[in-house]
UniProtKB/TrEMBL annotation:
InterPro entries xrefs: CBS_dom (IPR000644), CBS_dom_sf (IPR046342), Diverse_CBS-Domain (IPR051257), DRTGG (IPR010766), HotDog_dom_sf (IPR029069), Ser_kin/Pase_Hpr-like_N_sf (IPR028979), Thioestr_dom (IPR006683), WH-like_DNA-bd_sf (IPR036388)
Domain CBS: 195-252, 254-314
Species of provenance: Fodinisporobacter ferrooxydans
The name this protein goes by in its record: CBS domain-containing protein
Lineage: Bacteria, Bacillati, Bacillota, Bacilli, Bacillales
Keywords linked to the UniProt accession: CBS domain
PANTHER family to which the protein is assigned, alphabetical: CBS DOMAIN-CONTAINING PROTEIN, CBS DOMAIN-CONTAINING PROTEIN CBSX3, MITOCHONDRIAL
Length: 435
C-alpha cells in the first residue's frame, strides 16, 4: 500500500502541465495534514515536476530532468532580473529557443515559432506580432508595453517579460543558463548505465531456498529484498546465507536498510560509495521503488565509456587548462606550463586556490595515467600556498610520482613562477581497479 507521501506525488504527476496546485488543496483533496502535503510538494519541486512562480503559485510543469537543457519562462524571469508585464499563466511553459529582433518587421515570422522567446526593445508592432505567432516576449531596456499587448499576452497565456538590461546582456545571461544545463547533461548518471530489463530480486516472505533457485537461474549471488510496493528493505549475499536452513525466511538473514542510489545519482558518486563501503552491488531506486541494480563492472565500464565520449561543453577544468601545454620531464614526471588569466584569479587578482587545485589534480592524473592503464581518482591532497601568483604570470606545475602500486599512487607537485616555488602539494590517488 502506498504511503500518504507517495499518494500525493502520484496525484501531482497525474495533473496536466500548467495546472495550479497548493498545499491546502492537496490536504483537502487527499485528506492529509498540511505538513505532509508541504513536504511532498517540496519533493515534487526537487524532482522538477512542479515550479513555484511569483504571483501565480505552484504549477505542474514538464519534467525538467528529462529536458535539462531547457528553461521555463519563470526561470528566465529570475535569470534576467525581470518583471512579468502580462501572460502570467504561461510562465510554466518551456523555452525552446530565443531570437533577437534585429530584422525588419516583415521578416520576423521566419525566425519565431511556438515556445520561442523574442528579445526586443520598445517596438510595439514586433511585440504584438511575436505573441500572434506563439512566441513570448522579452522587452529590454526596462520599457513598458501597451494595454492591448498585455491583454493579448493574458489571452494567449504567453509571458511578456521586461528587463532593465540591454539586449546583449539578457541574451548572454540566457545563453549561459542554457549552457550550464548542458554541462549537467554531460555528467554520466546511473540511469545511463543500468539495464532496461527488470532486475532479479527477492521479497521479504521468500525463503533461503528461493535464493538458491535465483542463484542457479541468474548466475548472480547478490540480490535486493523488497516489500510489496517494491521498496528496497534489504540485501542478501552468500555470506548471509552461510549455514541458513532452506526454509528460513529471507527477511531474517538479510542485511537490512541497505545503501541505495537514485537513477539521478552520478556514476562517479556511485563509484565512490562502492569503493569506500566495499559494495559489490547497489540497488537503484526511483521514487523509492527498485528499478535496477548496478555492479562494480557496470560502474567501471560506464566511467571508461564516458571518458572516451566527446563533451559538448567546457567545465571549469577544461577552461583552466585551455592555455596550458604539457611536457614530459622524465619517466615519472610531467610539467604543465601556461599563463594565469584574469578569470583564474580571486578578488585580489592572484591565482585562486580553486584554480590551483584544478591544475594540481590535472597534473597528477596525467602523470599517473602514463604509468597506469586504469583511471585514477584523487583521494587526498595536502597543499601549501607559499607565495601569491598574479594574473599574467607564467607558471609551471611539475608533478613527480613518488610511489605507485597496484591500487594507488603518490605524487609530489610543485608550482613554480620565475624558478621560485610558489606552492607545493602531496597527492594520493586511487585506481578504479579498487572497485
Amino acid at each position: 500500500m502506498l504511503t500518504k507521501h507517495e499518494q500525493i506525488l502520484q496525484y501531482i504527476e497525474a495533473l496536466e502541465v500548467g495546472e495550479k496546485i497548493s498545499v491546502r488543496q492537496i490536504a483537502k483533496i487527499l485528506d492529509v495534514s498540511e505538513g505532509t502535503a508541504y513536504r511532498a510538494l517540496k519533493e515534487a519541486e526537487t524532482r522538477g515536476i512542479v515550479s513555484t512562480i511569483e504571483r501565480v503559485g505552484t504549477i505542474r510543469i514538464e519534467n525538467q530532468q528529462k529536458k535539462i537543457e531547457r528553461l521555463t519562462f519563470a526561470e528566465v524571469v529570475n535569470i534576467v532580473d525581470g518583471t512579468v508585464l502580462g501572460g502570467h499563466n504561461g510562465l510554466h511553459k518551456t523555452l525552446y529557443k530565443f531570437v533577437i529582433a534585429a530584422m525588419q518587421l516583415e521578416a520576423i515570422p521566419k525566425y519565431i515559432d511556438h515556445d520561442s522567446l523574442l528579445i526586443v526593445g520598445n517596438r510595439m508592432q514586433v511585440q504584438r506580432m511575436s505573441l500572434e505567432h506563439g512566441a513570448a516576449v522579452l522587452v529590454t531596456g526596462g520599457f513598458n508595453i501597451n494595454d492591448d499587448v498585455k491583454e493579448l499576452a493574458d489571452q494567449l497565456q504567453l509571458p511578456v517579460i521586461s528587463s532593465s538590461y540591454d539586449t546583449f546582456t539578457v541574451a548572454s545571461l540566457i545563453n549561459q543558463a542554457i549552457y550550464d544545463r548542458m554541462v549537467k547533461k554531460d555528467v554520466l548518471l546511473v540511469e545511463d548505465i543500468i539495464a532496461t530489463q527488470t532486475p532479479a530480486f527477492l521479497k521479504e516472505d521468500h525463503l533461503v531456498k528461493d535464493w538458491h533457485s535465483l542463484l542457479e537461474h541468474t548466475g548472480h549471488s547478490r540480490f535486493p529484498v523488497v516489500d510489496e510496493e517494491l521498496r528496497v528493505i534489504g540485501m542478501v549475499s552468500p555470506r548471509d546465507m552461510t549455514g541458513a536452513a532452506m526454509d528460513t525466511p529471507v527477511s531474517s538473514v538479510m542485511t537490512p536498510h541497505p545503501h541505495t542510489v537514485s537513477i539521478h545519482t552520478s556514476v562517479a558518486a556511485a563509484a565512490n560509495l562502492m569503493v569506500w563501503e566495499g559494495f559489490e552491488l547497489l540497488p537503484v531506486v526511483d521514487k523509492q521503488k527498485l528499478v535496477g541494480v548496478i555492479s562494480r563492472q557496470d560502474v567501471i565500464k560506464g566511467i571508461q565509456i564516458s571518458q572516451k565520449q566527446p563533451h559538448m561543453t567546457e567545465t571549469m577544468e577544461d577552461y583552466a587548462l585551455k592555455g596550458f601545454e604539457e611536457e614530459r620531464t622524465d619517466d615519472r614526471g610531467i610539467c604543465l606550463m601556461g599563463e594565469v588569466t584574469p578569470q583564474m584569479t580571486n578578488r585580489l587578482g592572484s591565482l585562486s586556490s580553486g584554480t590551483m587545485m584544478l591544475l594540481i589534480e590535472a597534473a597528477v592524473i596525467r602523470v599517473l595515467r602514463r604509468l597506469k592503464t586504469t583511471d585514477m581518482i584523487v583521494e587526498s591532497t595536502s597543499i601549501y600556498f607559499i607565495k601569491p601568483v598574479m594574473a599574467g604570470s607564467f607558471i609551471r606545475v611539475q608533478a613527480h610520482v613518488l610511489d605507485i602500486g597496484r591500487t594507488f599512487g603518490k605524487v609530489e607537485v610543485e608550482i613554480l613562477h620565475q624558478e621560485e616555488i610558489v606552492g607545493k602539494a602531496l597527492v594520493t590517488a586511487q585506481t578504479s581497479s579498487r572497485l
